[in-house]
Design a protein that fits this description.
- Two copies of one chain form a homodimer.
- Chain A is elongated, with a radius of gyration of 19 Å.
- By secondary structure, chain A is an all-alpha fold.
- Chain A has helices spanning 2-10, 18-35, 42-49, 53-59, 63-91, 96-106, 116-124, 130-144, 150-168, 176-193.
- The structure holds a DNA duplex (30 and 30 nucleotides).
Chain lengths: 195, 195
DNA sequence: GCACATAAACCGTCCAGACGGTACAGTCAA
DNA sequence: TTGACTGTACCGTCTGGACGGTTTATGTGC
């Protein structure tokens, strides 16, 4: 009983209904990736998600809230992976940068593009990207700057961003084999940097 | 002959009325850069450019034509610079890749962002990016693939793209000094690749 | 164990405003 | 005369979002 109430109080405050919100955000990403950010309308999300308009607006009271949630989810997702990689590397006294780049590599989702959120937010309300920018700045400050060769670290980050954005805009001028090679080469470069 | 064709290609052939079209395209880029691609409406371009709606629609019969022209102008601008750099390098039997990267560095415009066109097109009609993608593929095939270390060349391209896109989305997590350092480092890397 | 209260989750419609685009009459310099 | 515009009025469609209604889950008093 006590456990039950504790559980029910601890578990669901962040997400009572875990799936609906996520499903709506997934639908929004799908729309952006497929149709372009200007086609990200509430109605499009309604159709894509299968919920009703009222239902979507229940979870996200307005479009700005939806966009903000998209950005937040993206930032949180990457944060978790990168922080995990970083602390794991620190535990093993291993170099941080290869671990982070590797985490960025494996963060890529197959279907919906992770960074659709960036595109959507920049289209409608560029201010929403402030949190993302702050986050990236923090990573650069924490991981790149203290590295033996900060500029090379920055180049690796930028190259990863280049890959993400070419995905994002659908300009896939890098095929899978090249991508693979670029990624392992970047990890190798980061590893050698500490040697 | 060669000079004449070059001149006629650079100066007047496509545009009888040089300034208005360019001014309208500039205004469109400004709107995208400042307000986001979803605010790129014909009326916004009208206000920003100072022309009338009839005037804007006189030059670009519909919004798609405007977007296509934005993409075309961007591609043509970079093409001119890169092709110039490449042929200059070839004349001097110098390596191509450092010249191209250097040209990309200096292509950056101070105020309006060059790649706003990409953002605007991807928002509204991702198909419009086909020509840009074809162009990039061609560069990669012509310049990067034959290089001594194609993957490193690709990394340099991707890093430059990363810089452009961070500009584009207004996530300036790279300050001017870092940018400067990254660029000269990339050129250095490309130069050493041929040694 | 049952009636009831309450809120969360979700549905479907309606509307004002924004948008792309049309139409057209007029201006003005070359 | 013509090309390059201006200015205004207008139309159909799309969009955000307000709103009121309905179902479902949870708990509470008895």
């Amino acid at each position: 009983m006590c456990i039950a109430t504790t559980m029910s109080k601890l578990m669901p405050p962040i997400e009572n209904k875990p799936n609906t919100r996520e499903a709506i955000l997934d639908a929004a990403e799908t729309v952006v990736g497929r149709d372009g950010s200007s086609r990200l309308t509430i109605d499009a999300v309604v159709v894509e998600s299968g919920y009703s308009k009222g239902g979507v607006l229940y979870h996200f009271p307005n479009k700005t809230a939806l966009l903000a949630a998209m950005v937040d989810r993206m930032v949180e997702g990457i944060t978790v992976k990168i922080d995990g990689a970083r602390s794991e590397a620190e535990d093993k006294s291993a170099p941080i940068l290869p671990a982070i780049i590797s985490a960025m590599v494996h963060h890529r989702k197959p279907d919906t593009n992770v960074s659709s959120a960036l595109l959507a937010a920049s289209a409608e309300q560029p201010e929403l990207l402030d949190s993302a920018r702050d986050y990236i700045e923090k990573i650069v400050a924490d991981a790149v700057s203290p590295a033996p060769d900060p500029i090379l670290g920055l180049i690796a980050f930028l190259a990863m961003d280049g890959l993400h954005f070419s995905d994002l805009l659908g300009l896939h001028y890098v095929d899978d084999a090249q991508r693979e090679a670029v990624q392992s080469r970047l990890i190798q470069m980061m590893t050698e940097m500490y040697a």
